[in-house]
Write a structure and sequence with these properties.
Elements (H helix, E strand, L loop, with lengths): L3 H16 L3 E6 L3 H14 L3 E7 L7 H12 L4 E5 L1 H8 L5 H23 L2 E5 L4 H12 L14 H5 L2 E3 L7 H10 L4 H4 L19 H20 L8 E15 L2 E14 L7 E2 L4 H14 L3 E6 L13
Parallel strand pairs: 1-2, 1-4, 2-3, 4-5, 7-9
Antiparallel strand pairs: 6-7, 7-8
Helix pairs in contact: 1-2, 2-8, 4-5, 10-11
The chain binds xanthosine-5'-monophosphate (XMP).
Xanthosine-5'-monophosphate (XMP) binds next to loops.
Function: Catalyzes the synthesis of GMP from XMP.
Protein name: GMP synthase [glutamine-hydrolyzing]
Organism: Paracoccus salipaludis
């Protein structure tokens, strides 16, 4: 009989067999996939694993601290925390094309990761939390009639460039299976249940030019939105929810004064694997209350909209 406990034992065995006594480095993104991969690999080979967490300055509120605390302090997994926000945000200045953003982030990510991985010394393997849908999406894009919808930065490129072999223990799994494996490994429920977060981070939720000001506003609005969703007990029903800050200021009125601030869009979808998605049917009351909270609590936003596009034809992220 197939069980997750059995899968875990088999995966540990296969990792040991593949890696032997070599060193492995693993890029942690803060997401569920790379976290589960890291904990699984750590179980298999202990301190032969070092994790590198690249903070590109495009993370959500409190995210870097959460990841560092969990891995370094709770799991005792050797972790390099690379704060490279200056570098990334500097390179993204004035960039508004989505593919240029993605490629810039992907390229810098490789450079930075390589630099910090070199500090580990003599690693032979690179671990990635690649899932089955990542494998098929990237294969069909490159093999099909040359349509690249989006350049994902967690597949391809890195290992060849670094002369490393890949360890991808989640390659056969779908998201729900990765979550079950994470639970089996004892990762906290709240962490396992976290919505997916894309490698390029908030950059692709900030259409148009990325500025620190916009990122700060976006982080705060997103935190209020997620808090609302949790308070209403909806978090686990939703596959992914986030705020996008729009590249437009609009006129509003607050108290006796005129405001001229950013508009934002709330996004929430249900999905099985991210390949297709439906927008989430919030009640009007929820939407109204959330809009009021965001506008009252987040300086810099004076208009809130709700994105009711499903995928296809939309994508989940805005870029
Ligand atoms: P889209 O926007 O293509 O997103 O409908 C589908 C799912 O993939 C996530 N996503 C990414 N994840 N690197 C990632 O690790 C990326 O470059 C990337 N782009 C999109 C997105 O958040 C959604 O869950």
């Amino acid at each position: 009989d197939w069980t997750m406990a059995g899968y875990r034992a088999e995966a540990v065995r296969r990792i040991r067999e593949q890696v032997g006594d070599a060193k492995v480095i693993c890029g942690l993104s803060g997401g569920v996939d790379s976290s589960v991969a890291a904990v699984l690999i750590h179980e298999a080979i202990g301190d032969q694993l070092t994790c590198v967490f690249v903070d590109h300055g495009l993370l959500r509120l409190g995210e870097a601290e959460e990841v560092v605390t969990m891995f370094r302090d709770h799991y005792n997994i050797p972790l390099i925390h690379a704060d490279e926000s200056e570098l990334f945000l500097g390179a993204l200045e004035g960039v508004s094309d989505p593919e240029v953003k993605r490629k810039t982030i992907g390229r810098l990510f490789i450079d930075v990761f390589q630099k910090h991985a070199a500090d580990v010394g003599g690693a032979e393997f690179l671990a990635q939390g690649t899932l089955y849908p990542d494998v098929i999406e990237s294969v069909s894009f490159s093999g099909g009639p040359s349509v690249t919808i989006k350049s994902h930065h967690n597949v391809g490129g890195l290992p060849e460039k670094m002369g490393l072999k890949l360890v991808e223990p989640l390659r056969e799994l779908f998201k729900d299976e990765v979550r079950a494996l994470g639970r089996e490994l004892g990762l906290p429920d709240r962490f396992i249940g976290r919505h997916p977060f894309p490698g390029p981070g908030l950059a692709i939720r900030c259409p148009g030019e990325i500025t620190r000001e916009k990122l700060d506003i976006l982080r705060k609005a997103d935190a209020v939105y997620i808090d609302q969703i949790r308070k209403h007990g909806l978090y686990d029903e939703i596959w992914q929810a986030f705020v996008a800050i729009l590249p437009v200021r609009t006129v509003g009125v607050m108290g006796d004064g005129r405001t001229y601030d950013f508009a934002c869009a709330l996004r929430a979808v249900t999905s099985v694997d991210g390949m297709t998605a439906d927008y989430y049917p919030f009640t009007h009351q929820f939407l109204g209350e959330t809009a009021t909270r965001i506008i009252n609590e987040v300086k810099g936003i004076n208009r809130v909209t709700y994105d009711i596009t499903s995928k296809p034809p939309g994508t989940i992220e805005w870029e």
